Amino acid sequence: QLQLVESGGGLVQPGGSLRLSCAASRSTLDNYAIGWFRQAPGKEREGVSCISSNDGITYYADSVKGRFTISRDNAKNTVYLQMNSLKPEDTALYYCAAAFLPSSDYLLYDYWGQGTQVTVSS
How far apart are CA 47 and CA 19, in angstroms? Predict the structure, then answer.
């Protein structure tokens, strides 16, 4: 069964950057679309970005478009989320998840990591 582990979160000042990683184990990521989601306290889980399994199609939420970039390295079994120009409202627990088709709907994802905290504050 696919296992996902996120890393790369932390505390960063507004305007700063972080790169999140989503590493897979026990199976290959090749056949899965990967999504990044985030959830802030008291708020619903939000789809941030996703990437298809084999043709590189990507999706971004309007709130992160132009600032975040999703990419995948199937050879390393890892998906990345490069986050630039971070804002305080980006503060949340960030999760990666795997599904057979890319979607912003978290209900369609079957496998989830434990999350990595991103805090944007001065």
Answer: 17
CA-to-CA separations, 4 to 59, 67, 87, in angstroms, rounded: 20, 24, 26
The CA angle 76-52-110, to the nearest 5 degrees, is: 85
Q: Using alpha carbons only, how large is the chain's radius of gyration in Å? A: 13
Task: Say how far apart CA 84 and CA 112 lie, in whole Å.
Answer: 24
Is 113 in contact with 6 (CB distance < 8 Å)?
yes
Is residue 120 within 8 Å of 63, Cβ to Cβ?
A: no
DSSP state of 90: G
Query: What is the tens place of the pLDDT at every residue in 100-121?
Result: 988 888 889 999 999 999 999 9
- 77 vs 26 pLDDT, higher one: 77
- The candidate with the shortest Cα–Cα distance to 48, out of 101, 90, 5, is 90
Report the distance separating Cα 4 and Cα 58, nearest Å.
19
